[in-house]
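Please, why this fold?
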Amino acid sequence: MGILGKLYAGEPGYWHLTDKNGLPSSTVYSIIEDKQGFLFLGTPNGLVRFNGFDFKIILNPSAKSGDASDLQMDTKGNIWFSNFNHQLFVYNGGASATKLNEIDENNFNPTGKFFLDFHENLWFTNNSSIFRYDSKLKKVIQTGDSESYWQSFALNGKFGFWGATSDKMVVFDFAPYPILKKREIVGIPQMQGILRNIVYNPNNGFICQTHLKYVNMPAGFKLLQLRAFPQIKSINSFGIFKNGTVWVCTANGVAMFNANGEILNQGKLIFEGRNTSVVYEDRRGNLWVATLNDGVYMITNFDVINEIYYNSNHRENGVYSLNQYNEILYAGMQNGDIKIFDKGKESIWKTGQERSILFMAQLPNTKNYFINGTLLRFGEQLGKSMELLGAPKGLVFIGEDVYLGNNIGIYQFGLNHLLHGIADREPPEMPFFIVDEKGIKNPKGKLKKQNNRILKGRAGRVFNDNMGRVWFSVSSGIYFIQNDTFYQLQLNRNLDEMATDFCSDGKNGVYILVSNKGVYQFVNNKTELKFKLLNTNARRMIATEGKIWIGTNNGVILINSQSSKFYSIKMNDGLLSNDIQDIAYYNHRIYMGTLRGISSISTDFLPANAIGPQLFVENIRVNGVTVNLLPGSNVFKYNANNIEFDYCGIDFQSRDQLYYEYRLIGQSDSWVRQNGKISVTQFQGLPSGDYRFECRAFNDKGIVSKNMISLGFSIAKPWWRQWWFLLILLILFTSIVILLIRYYNIQKRNKEKLESNLRISQLTSLKAQMNPHFMFNALNSIQDFILLNDRVSANSFLGKFSDLMRMVLEMSNQTNISLANELKALHLYLELEAIRFEDSMKYSVTTSENLDPTEWELPSMIIQPFVENAIKHGLLHKRSDKKLSINFNRFTESNLLLVTIEDNGVGRREANRISQNRQKQHTSFATGATDERLKLLNKDAKKQIQIKFTDLEDADGNACGTKVEIQITLKAIL
């Protein structure tokens, strides 16, 4: 086959934005950057804002057409633009733009013929007259100057502006502002009606288009005659950069000129073949090239040159391998071709290979090439297949010796055997020396040369250094051969470590690349880890002029071997891809093969993005409602605690490598990392307290933004946690405590009063026991015994009377007494009463078997009053056969006592009648003190004392006595 050649022409590294990235239209008319760093695009779909991730269409409800063009920005940061219906608009933030109704659409012809001066006033022309729109007065003023046709119109610094007509250029000076002083510069027409010349001033940024050749150009102004460049045909727009570089957009690419009017890029158009509309330089030096049908391109660095082989119609034409030999660069392609770069020219060798070119090497002093295990002569397709040497990874020629590594081992043979065949014999057991970090040890012997495999295992690169050593790596370890002696390296106490590449350190040593470990250096028969690499799939390595270049699956790592500084070079810096297949040094540039093509950079290239992103808050929402946080205090209600921050970091070079860190002090002091595509942070259900939201942005090189978002706010406490409410609670609590204390004191006093009343009741009971009648009767009885000289009876009666009085006095001071004492006192009382009745009264006191009087207690003197009533009111009025029975019975498995007092007296009705007939009424204990005492005892008692009276009758219905049943709750004596 033949070799097809063409001029080598690459393109600078770029970022291509199309509808796949969300760009609303592939056609872009104009570009401008606002003060915050947003990029604004004029498109057929209107004004579009871009922050590096998302495109936002600015609403324009008053527009007659949806397009936007001729973007300009005033000193306040407002964006002015027009549409093809001669309407003028201004955008100053928010969701929509505003139409300037004062501009007459019939007089306003915007395309290239309006500008904003430094007083924020607008100047425009209708092709004949010049008008000024006063932004403060909101009024259009006509200057009075008119020409038949204004072909061009441009601002001339702060001093005035220029206009070009068909036969002259006019300078309007502000003298003073806004009064115009007119100066004319007459030119010589070159070609009527065709604008082929550019007048520009690189010192103040003025540029204007004309078809004249001027003979009296003012000082500092230059004339660029575009007709001298036949590659420039249809001109769409033009402009000038800060450094004086002039750009011209054409339907076939962009032409660049330096400040002296000399064409750049060797006269070749940038983005050749694309219909370009405008070029814009942002504040960070990035160039944006807009097209009329292919979106927008961003150029970060012109030092990155790309040769693109990938396209949507032909996917399998990437670069898998690179090889530099005799000042020629060979690129092994994915489709089996080899591209050859020789002194600025590019040619193609179609090898006929049916698979990608993964390996190639030229045999010394011949035109034979070893390609993918096939021996080919340069320019031919058919070759000799070397089956035993298939899938080669490395090939080294040392004199007549050849060393080759492939998937099954390392081969050593003579060069003539490569051409005539190689034997396939099992490799011998090779003796070798072990080389560790301390040096060489364990000498075993020398290599005996053979024309077959010398080591088994999957092999990697094979490399010969400038000391005559041959290096290779297999799955069993890293080896080198010197003077026919085998050596194996021991890295980190590991003999079976595998290297992915080798290169010279520029002196007497060798750099050894171990993927995911780093770069080791072998010098003076010792190895050390020189540069550490983590989590990196390192594939290829070269060293040039004190720098190490490592191709990985995530870009290129550049190491300055003198300063040990690391640099990362990626697509953000202009590379075609981060997936680097191979790397080579050629023509003072570093070439990187990728599956999209070849990228190259100079050896002096350093990735630069030393300025952190611009960062600001776009929106703050509280419970879904937009709010403004003021510099002072920002306090939200306790239930307004769902806070959302919408922020934006802008750094177009970083692309998707931009990221954020944020924290909410008051919740946590730890920074949280967040992908740059997500620029909103929500905090739900924040508790009451003081907070400060802080956020910072980092670019792709890890440089933090100069400014940091820092917004303080507070979530108020709920009303039930406010100081006034807590004060009310304190007052209420204090009041309750006071009331409780008062209540306690009242209860205490009531209790004391109750106890006092009980004591009084007991004393009253004592008095009742010792009422004058009882004592008189008792004393009379004693007197009778004395008169009858019955000293024994008198003495006995007196002793019992004194015992009863003593017990009554003792029990009157006690709230409760034992049932045994109660029974004892009751027996004494009954004995005295029986003596007084002269044995005419019979009584009995019984207790149930399950009742032990010594184990229980009850209120003192609670039974005796009812016994006294039975005697006084029931039995006293009966003449004979007086009977009284008292029974104490405890309910089974209960502490309830039932006392039954039964007499056979006259009955209650007859007793009441007799009592009423007495002249002097005697109020008994049972009817007075007893009732009062029962009320006191029953007050606040869980189980009250219950009294039941039963009138007994005989068979004829006559009263025959009274039965009293007293139910009392006993207390166990502890």
In short: Residues 1-8, 919-926 have pLDDT under 50 and may be disordered. The chain has eight helices and 76 strands. Helices lie at 415-420, 723-769, 772-787, 791-811, 819-836, 864-875, 908-917, 929-938. The two ends are 124 Å apart (CA to CA).
